[in-house]
Structure formats: structure tokens, C-alpha cells
Design a protein that fits this description.
CATH architecture: Roll
Number of helices: 1
Radius of gyration: 12 Å
Number of domains: 1
CATH superfamily: PRC-barrel domain
Order of helices and strands: HEEEEEE
Distance between the termini: 29 Å
Number of strands: 6
CATH class: Mainly Beta
Shape: globular
Strand order of the largest sheet: 4-3-2-1-6-5
Largest sheet: 6 strands, mixed
């Protein structure tokens, strides 16, 4: 699967059913292995208390990559 295909999917937290946002980038370590995905938070989740409009999600937090969405397990 290509990054461009992942970027078209919405990222949803399975714990509360809320949309987190969309993938904007992937972190790759010095060994060439992808460590995590970077998700741009939806405007709904960005608050004035938030220091960043991005969230890093580790690959082991991804539960399922579907046709339209990516389901992740984020504890809040």
C-alpha cells in the first residue's frame, strides 16, 4: 500500500469512535523502518490548549486498515 492511499483514509479512534484526522506523514528511522504515522488532527479535536495540530501514532496502535478508514486504539 502506498502512502498516498493511506492519506485518503480517515483515522478513527476505536475507544470513542471519534475521527482523529488524516495521515500527513510517516516517520522512518535510521534503519529505514517506519516507526509511526503522523496524523493531522481534525479541526474538531484541535483546542486552544493543544500545542500541536499533529499526533504521532505507533504502528502497534493500528487495529485495522479498511477501505475507507484506519481504526486505531488510542487511550485517552
Amino acid at each position: 500500500m502506498r502512502l498516498s492511499e493511506l492519506q485518503n483514509k480517515s483515522v478513527i479512534n476505536i475507544n470513542d469512535g471519534k475521527m482523529i484526522g488524516n495521515i500527513i506523514d510517516i516517520n522512518i528511522n535510521q534503519k529505514g523502518i517506519s516507526d509511526d504515522i503522523i496524523v493531522e488532527k481534525s479541526k474538531f479535536l484541535i483546542s486552544r490548549f493543544s500545542s500541536s495540530g499533529e499526533i504521532s501514532i505507533k504502528w502497534n496502535q493500528i487495529e485495522k486498515i479498511g477501505q475507507d478508514v484506519i481504526l486505531v486504539n488510542l487511550k485517552t
